[in-house]
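Project outcomes to date are best conveyed with an example. Our students and postdoctoral researchers have been running inverse folding experiments weekly, and each run begins with a structure described purely in tokens. The record below, which covers 247 residues, was selected by the lab manager from last quarter's runs and is presented without edits.
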């Protein structure tokens, strides 16, 4: 990890009174959840179009539920890591600190973050396709989860491709991106829209963009500082440098 980048990023954070974090699957990778587009990622074993779409669920709900049951079981065994916990701490250090996440694992909340905007829903949420029945939790609902109120199918409370995001979520996310002094991109390949447009929006409103990612991404050209490292090490180093700069 390059000390200069860490120092530059810490200087930007120390001066900021408003920070917007945009996190993706790379943030959860170090808690043991596979990413989507890395070589051993989730999509490499499954085709997104095949499983994370309303059409796939319509066509073969049992197959889609098999995939989510596997991921929900995994979710029941993992914890937030030091990087998640630092983001929760930083909420106290900056007047206006918001985490916008594409992740559906709830790890930011579990680490103590309060201001979290979950763009793609939550995997531990389940709802009926027909009525208002909802269920929270990671119990194994079996191969064909049915609504106890109306017997129709239950589905994961996540946003599939070509589905609208939760009402108000993307507006709140763009508002945070447009008012922030620093946009901190962590572990996202910048492929999925509309989340991927947050960095551009922040930049166009004058924010500095810091990217934390071991690899280059579709958003790297927007980054003022690129910390080429895993998020846990990068955020830990950033926290130390920020305390030094800020003291
Ligand atoms: C929408 C929930 C309006 C499900 C997910 C053509 C036709 C129709 C639509 C579109 C189209 N073209 C574009 C679209 C829009 C579409 C889209 O973006 N498609 C993409 C594929 C091009 N978006 C949508 O459909 C969205 N809805 O636009 O509604 C609409 C309505 C009707 C018609 C049109 C539009 C809904 C998108 C939500 C999809 N749901 N997840 C589930 O997960 O089961 S997306 C899924 O991808 C996850 O949420 C994931 O978070 C997300 C994005 O991926 P990343 O988080 O970036 O993860 P990735 O693996 O890609 O990258 C990981 C990164 O981490 C890498 O860069 C890696 O280097 C880095 N990394 C690895 N290790 C570490 C690390 N970084 C730091 N530390 C480490 N240790
Ligand atoms: Zn129902």
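After processing, the design step wrote out the following sequence:
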């Amino acid at each position: 990890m390059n000390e200069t980048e860490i120092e530059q990023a810490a200087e930007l954070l120390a001066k900021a009174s408003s920070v917007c974090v945009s996190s993706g699957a790379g943030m959860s990778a170090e808690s043991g959840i596979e990413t989507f587009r890395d070589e051993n990622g989730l999509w490499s074993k499954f085709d997104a179009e095949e499983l994370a779409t309303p059409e796939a669920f319509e066509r073969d709900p049992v197959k889609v539920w098999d995939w989510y049951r596997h991921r929900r079981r995994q979710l029941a065994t993992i914890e937030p890591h030091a990087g998640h916990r630092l983001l929760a701490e930083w909420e106290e250090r900056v007047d206006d600190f918001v985490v916008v996440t594409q992740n559906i694992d709830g790890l930011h909340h579990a680490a103590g973050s309060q201001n979290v905007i979950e763009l793609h829903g939550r995997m531990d949420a389940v709802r009926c396709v027909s009525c208002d029945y909802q269920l929270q939790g990671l119990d194994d609902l079996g191969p064909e989860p049915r609504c106890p109120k109306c017997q129709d199918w239950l589905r994961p409370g996540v946003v599939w491709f070509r589905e609208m995001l939760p009402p108000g979520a993307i507006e709140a996310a763009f508002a945070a991106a447009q008012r922030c002094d620093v946009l901190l991109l962590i572990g996202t390949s910048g492929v999925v829209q509309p989340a991927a447009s947050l960095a551009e929006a922040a930049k166009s409103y004058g924010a500095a963009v810091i990217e934390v990612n071991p690899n280059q991404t579709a958003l790297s050209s927007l980054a003022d500082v690129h910390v080429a490292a895993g998020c846990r090490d990068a955020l830990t180093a950033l926290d130390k440098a920020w305390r030094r700069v800020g003291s």
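The chain has a mean pLDDT of 95. The pocket of zinc ion (ligand 2) is lined by residues 128, 130-131, 133, 147, 149-150, 152 (CB under 6 Å). The training component of this project remains on track.
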